[in-house]
Design goal:
The chain is of the alpha/beta class and 208 residues long. Helices cover 45% and strands 20% of the residues. It is built from eleven helices and eight strands.
Length: 208
């Protein structure tokens, strides 16, 4: 299982610092949506230039014009780009077409898909995405009763390649791996830590 760090910061300077601190312990550097909105596609170029040996994940959260937006991100150096799993099927297929053009990967982000999530995961998987990200956003995580176990259960049931994003911590990363995830996405557990490098190193050490 790969470890992905979400660079959920709003400036390129902070993103480069966090990437530098954690790069030795993670496989994928994710540019969060706020970072891309604040800094633009040049942020993708900068992170890739600084860490050419790492997979760079552009969390575009594309909801329309899938081929165009994915093409822009891939041309800027992204290795993986997200399209919303809730988007129109043609939007997903368009993003996949851009991925094939560049020889890169498209990930369907399942954020906001709660009802019938397993069914939708299976649908988008058939459209050619490399894997789905079963994702509970910060607002969903803040709701009473939220548990990452729901995401893990849906991943197991769907039976397709998936990643998990939704409050992964040292206490839960083993369960994520046991559920069969190909990627564990850690955000706050790393960027909110006193020592992000130590936090990333610890999470990586817990992957068997």
């Amino acid at each position: 299982m790969k470890l992905q760090v979400a660079l959920d910061v709003a400036t390129l300077e902070d993103a480069l610092t966090l990437a530098r601190q954690t790069a030795d312990y993670v496989d994928i550097l994710e540019l969060g949506t706020p970072l891309i909105k604040a800094e633009g596609l040049d942020a993708i170029k900068a992170i890739k230039a600084a860490h050419p040996d790492k997979l760079v994940f552009a969390d575009m959260k594309t909801a329309d014009a899938g081929e165009l937006e994915a093409d822009l991100a891939f041309a800027a150096g992204a290795d993986l780009v997200t399209v919303m799993g809730a988007a129109d099927d043609d939007t997903v297929r368009g993003a996949v077409a851009a991925g094939r053009k560049h020889g890169k990967d498209v990930v369907a982000d399942m954020i906001t898909v709660v009802a019938d999530r397993v069914a939708r995961i299976r649908e988008v998987s058939k459209m050619g995405v490399s894997f789905v990200e079963i994702h509970a956003g910060l607002d969903e995580q803040a709701k009473p009763g939220y548990t990452i176990q729901t995401l893990l259960d849906d991943g197991r049931q769907a039976g397709v390649p998936f990643s998990i994003a939704g409050g992964i911590k040292a206490e839960s990363i083993a369960a994520v791996q046991d559920a069969g995830a190909t990627v564990a996405v850690a955000g706050g557990a790393i960027y909110s830590a006193k020592d992000p490098a130590a936090a990333a190193k610890n999470l990586k050490s817990l992957i068997r």
